């Protein structure tokens, strides 16, 4: 009799534990998740925006081949199903995709390991008379991107300064998504960083926007914000870093020249979002 009472009590105790918050029943075992380690960090910290530089069919073939991949691909004009634009998911978010390549952001390398990549069908740039001309993005494509990016940023608590262009994390190799990508519009939707205009004016301090500044001072600011800046860089490599920053935050002029407005924008961003 006593043994039967004891077994009933034990069963009730275990059932109570299984229903307890933080106790998870599995097939053949239980997980106690009530004590979580402090030395743990989320894997996904960065959202990287790309363009494909190709049409949709070619982009889809490339991104599902063996050499390169991305988590999402958005057509230039997404087809509507039930009134909703369709986006292609090519890699589950919990898996690593090969979209960033050799890269660096805010002290970290191997950005593929810590990021989600979104590819936008877009022709990229063409060159004429030594000048690059970038293809615009379709409004329907940006409207499809915004809710997807919002969900990703919220799901992984991605900081505004970690929503980046491919050019930001690989300025020596990449230009995408280029100066016509609407970063300011996305930032207004809570996706990514953007400087406060009043603080840019403050840091400009009455100087003409395109007045030259010391490139070394500007590059130090960009390094503190997150860009890879090496002491051994050539002048052309330095210009590529400045150009990547300008395409993102001062798209009206992205000539790679260190000027007062670019410096003021960098200072305003550092004040708002902190440094690497």
From TrEMBL:
To which protein family does this belong? Belongs to the N-acetylmuramoyl-L-alanine amidase 2 family.
Where does the N-acetylmuramoyl-L-alanine amidase domain start and stop, copy by copy?
Answer: 32-178
> What reaction is this protein's catalytic activity?
Hydrolyzes the link between N-acetylmuramoyl residues and L-amino acid residues in certain cell-wall glycopeptides
> Which UniProt key words apply to this protein?
Cell wall biogenesis/degradation, Hydrolase
Q: What class of enzyme is it?
A: hydrolase
Kindly name one Pfam family recorded for this protein: Amidase_2
Enzyme Commission number:
3.5.1.28
Q: What is this protein called?
A: N-acetylmuramoyl-L-alanine amidase
Q: Does the keyword Cell membrane apply?
A: no
**Entry's Gene Ontology molecular function annotations:** N-acetylmuramoyl-L-alanine amidase activity
């Amino acid at each position: 009799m006593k043994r039967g009472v004891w077994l009933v009590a034990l069963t009730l105790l275990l059932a109570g534990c299984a229903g307890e918050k933080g106790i998870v029943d599995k097939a053949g075992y239980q997980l106690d998740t009530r004590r979580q380690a402090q030395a743990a960090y989320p894997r996904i910290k960065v959202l990287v925006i790309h363009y494909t530089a190709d049409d949709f069919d070619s982009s889809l073939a490339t991104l599902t081949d063996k050499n390169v991949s991305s988590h999402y691909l958005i057509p230039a004009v997404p087809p509507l199903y039930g009134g909703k634009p369709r986006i292609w998911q090519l890699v589950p978010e919990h898996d690593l995709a090969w979209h960033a390549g050799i890269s660096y952001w805010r002290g970290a390398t191997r950005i593929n390991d810590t990021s989600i990549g979104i590819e936008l069908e877009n022709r990229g740039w063409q060159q004429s008379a030594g000048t690059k001309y970038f293809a615009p993005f379709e409004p329907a494509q940006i409207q499809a991107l915004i809710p997807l990016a919002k969900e990703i940023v919220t799901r992984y608590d991605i900081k505004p300064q970690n929503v980046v262009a491919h050019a930001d994390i690989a300025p020596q190799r990449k230009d995408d998504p280029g100066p016509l990508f609407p970063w300011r519009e996305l930032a207004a939707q809570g996706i990514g960083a953007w400087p406060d205009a009043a603080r840019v004016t403050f840091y400009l301090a009455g100087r003409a926007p395109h007045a030259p500044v010391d490139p070394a001072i500007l590059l130090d600011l960009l390094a503190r914000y997150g860009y890879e800046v090496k002491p051994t860089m050539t002048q052309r490599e330095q210009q590529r870093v400045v150009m990547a920053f300008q395409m993102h935050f001062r798209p009206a002029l992205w000539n790679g020249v260190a000027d007062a407005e670019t410096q003021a924008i960098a200072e305003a961003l550092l004040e708002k979002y902190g440094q690497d």
